């Protein structure tokens, strides 16, 4: 009698467990291929350290260096693209800098932000990388172009790295808990977060409309570069690049010396990317634009642009115009990781 009563309950439980198992399996299936789990070892640490040659110049013109032949896995070579969440260790946080330029107004800025980024990477298992941009021979082009060879070298040095996050030196990570994969890089985040039908800017919208917008519909599989734009233009101060054939091709084209890199563009590599986006539907299809504060909040600005509590980072873009870099930097440095109410939405 007792067994008879227990049996249906058991099968109900078993049934629920099975259904739950398949729900979870199918939810994950869209995101992550099975091979991912096969390669996942239980103690997943950061990628092994690589030999970085930061202290000596490269032996010749940058484009002739072996790093431009960085490899792309078969799934990332074709037109169909692919969508999956990267492992944390396959996210490289790249500081491409020689510590000079406008940023040298802030004492020890490079050492300080590198130490801080190391802690951030250790906390999440990302890979922290600094590349000395003085090493690249980029001819007579403006020095900010040297961020692009650094991206190529990052992919080359870490053959497994799937995403390279290029961030300028004048950026402080304000929310160390922030999960890049969940919030920015996962197929779900991209699907939910990218701006659709948003004008792509070339100067102020009212004065100089381009009449070109981001697509209304896109495939997550196609998105290889993630960027934000401020009130005037896309901004390369904080940009994510995915290891795909498209990315490699775009980096090569951006650095075409005759047509782009060697020409006088006030915004250097940023103008090149903007130009390629405005000119080519194919490029727009592969470059996703997130709302600015997602990963490029500025030190000043309204609720669309300026840092507000909880934002991932603050970027001191243009701080040198008013000579405020050091003052602002110290103010935010004191506040990194803060949880109090400091700059809420609606503040100035
Ligand atoms: C960066 O590279 C330049 C050129 O190779 C070199 O002179 C400089 O010492 C390097 N900086 C550091 C901190 O290693
Ligand atoms: C955008 O559209 C406006 C209004 O039709 C026009 O005046 C302007 O020249 C266009 N801009 C470009 C870059 O095509």
TrEMBL record:
Classification via InterPro entries: Glyco_trans_34, Nucleotide-diphossugar_trans
BP-aspect Gene Ontology terms: protein N-linked glycosylation
Spans traversing the lipid bilayer: 12-30
Domain of life: Eukaryota
Record keywords, A-Z: Glycosyltransferase, Membrane, Transferase, Transmembrane, Transmembrane helix
A single cellular component GO annotation: Golgi membrane
GO terms of molecular function: glycosyltransferase activity
Family classification: Belongs to the glycosyltransferase 34 family.
PANTHER family according to UniProt: ALPHA-1,2-GALACTOSYLTRANSFERASE (PTHR31306:SF4), ALPHA-1,6-MANNOSYLTRANSFERASE MNN11-RELATED (PTHR31306)
Protein name as catalogued: Glycosyltransferase family 34 protein
Organism (species): Westerdykella ornata
């Amino acid at each position: 009698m007792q067994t008879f009563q227990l049996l249906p309950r058991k099968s109900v439980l078993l049934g629920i467990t099975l259904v739950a198992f398949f729900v979870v399996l199918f939810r994950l299936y869209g995101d992550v291929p099975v091979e991912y789990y096969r390669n996942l070892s239980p103690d997943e640490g950061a990628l092994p350290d690589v030999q970085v040659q930061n202290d000596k110049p490269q032996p010749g013109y940058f484009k002739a260096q072996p790093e431009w032949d960085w490899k792309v896995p078969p799934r990332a070579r074709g037109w169909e693209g692919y969508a999956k969440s990267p492992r944390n260790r396959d996210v490289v946080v790249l500081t491409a800098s020689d510590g000079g330029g406008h940023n040298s107004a802030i004492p020890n800025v490079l050492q300080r932000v590198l130490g801080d980024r190391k802690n951030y990477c250790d906390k999440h298992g990302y890979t922290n990388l600094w590349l000395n941009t003085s090493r690249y021979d980029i001819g007579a082009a403006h020095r900010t172009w040297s961020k692009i060879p650094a991206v190529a070298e990052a992919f080359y040095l870490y053959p497994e790295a799937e995403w390279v996050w290029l961030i300028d030196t004048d950026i402080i990570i304000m929310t160390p808990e922030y999960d890049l994969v969940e919030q920015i890089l996962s197929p779900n985040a991209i699907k939910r977060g990218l701006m659709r039908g948003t004008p792509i800017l070339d100067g102020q919208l009212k004065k100089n409309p381009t009449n070109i917008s981001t697509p209304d519909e896109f495939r997550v599989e196609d998105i290889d570069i993630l960027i934000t734009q401020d009130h005037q233009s896309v901004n390369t101060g904080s940009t994510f690049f995915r290891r795909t054939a498209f990315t490699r091709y775009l980096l090569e084209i951006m650095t075409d010396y005759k047509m782009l890199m060697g020409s006088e563009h006030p915004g250097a590599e940023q103008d090149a990317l903007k130009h390629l986006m405005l000119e080519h539907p194919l490029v727009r299809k592969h470059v996703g634009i997130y709302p600015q504060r997602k990963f490029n909040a500025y030190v000043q600005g309204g609720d669309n642009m300026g840092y507000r509590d909880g934002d991932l980072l603050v970027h001191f873009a243009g701080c040198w115009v008013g000579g405020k870099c050091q003052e602002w930097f110290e103010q935010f440095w004191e506040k990194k990781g803060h949880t109090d109410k400091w700059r809420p939405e609606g503040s100035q």
